Amino acid sequence: MSIAVGLIGAGVMGKEHGRILSMHTPNAHLAGVCDFDPDKARAIAGKASIFLDPLDLITSKEIDAVLIASPDSTHADLVQACIAAEKPVLCEKPLAMSADQARLIVEAECLKEKSFVQVGYMRRFDPGYVELKRLFDANAIGKPEILHNFHRNPVAPDWMTGDMLITNAFVHEIDVMRWVMATELEAVRITVAEKGDPMMIVTRLANGAISSTELYMNCKFGYQVHAELVGEEGTISLPEFSAPVVNKSGHRATHVPRNWIPRFVAAYQAQTRSWIESIISGVQNHGATAWDGYITTLIAEQLAERSGTDQTIELELPPRPSLYR
Q: Are 260 and 93 in contact (CB under 8 A)?
């Protein structure tokens, strides 16, 4: 059985998803591509059909499942269309531009009494994070005390300004905290440098632990994501990025990636394979659900509204619907 996947968006992420579907995903094939620029779509389509309208792709009988990698502002409407068509969808984060839009997606799934949506928080499939989660669940270092997160980027893109450090970057750490430690965030305090970057975020979690997150979107040296979990009996750290070490002329040097794709290429591949396996088996994987996408967006929205106050922000989260328990 081969799942026919329709890809919406042929930009940087769309191109990478197309490559993964074509080269690294057993039991699936790229069956359709849609982009506002048909030339970009053709460049990655191969033998796949070209669609000029994303809704035509979603409703096409040629397409079994949909992968959304189009601009963020399009995600909510396209995901809603996939739910209406009752087609599984893997949507790049964010699920929606606002918590209200994301909540409507959750409500649409609840009406169908079925989960169709997986949100692309790919760190859940990174080998290092998967092992961190396994060891946490096995109580390898006793009661959790602190989760340290580092999220550094060499240069922020022009469009990432102000609150987008929270709504576009910190959302990954929100999802990591919730998933790895199987708990919710209760309260957050944000301290921002005078120039707006870097940012330190301290979080109180419902399981009694705390988390610290350094966000530095203009660190200059490269892209770096790291985490260390501190427990009562020890610590667990993610492995460093694997790259060759060069010794020459009295110096030792290694490579640091310039963006997120090399760092998380294995995670993206595992995420897509797991998504396809879930479609075939009917058994949901550990990827982020529409509920996870909603809660992450809701938390980010509440933080962005008060990010400049330098106060402890008490979060208000709704109860989880039975569909997602």
A: no
Question: Residue 250 and residue 233: Cα distance in Å, rounded?
Answer: 39
Mean pLDDT computed over 6-27: 96
Q: Does residue 310 register a pLDDT over 90?
A: no
Tokens matching residue 266: 């294995």
* Spatial CA neighbour of 171 closest among 83, 47, 300, 68: 300
Q: What is the mean pLDDT of residues 166-189?
A: 97
Tokens of 119: 């949100």
What is the Cα–Cα distance from 51 to 231, expressed in whole angstroms? 51
DSSP 96-137: -SSHHHHHHHHHHHHHHTS--EEE--GGGGSHHHHHHHHHHH
pLDDT digits (tens, 9 = 90+) for 272-294: 999 999 999 999 999 999 999 99
pLDDT digits (tens, 9 = 90+) for 254-266: 999 999 999 999 9
Rounded distance between C-alpha atoms, residue 226 and residue 241, angstroms: 9
- Pairing verdict, β 117-119 and 288-289: antiparallel
Asked if residue 198 has a cis previous peptide bond (ω within 30° of 0), the answer is yes
DSSP 162-188: TTHIIIIIIHHHHHHHHHHTT--EEEE
Cβ–Cβ under 8 Å, residues 92 and 120: yes
Q: Quickly count: other Cβ atoms within 10 Å of residue 180's Cβ.
A: 24
- Give the containing element (helix H, strand E) for 230: strand 224-231
pLDDT at 161 over 80: no
In whole angstroms, what is the distance from residue 28 CA to residue 71 CA?
A: 24
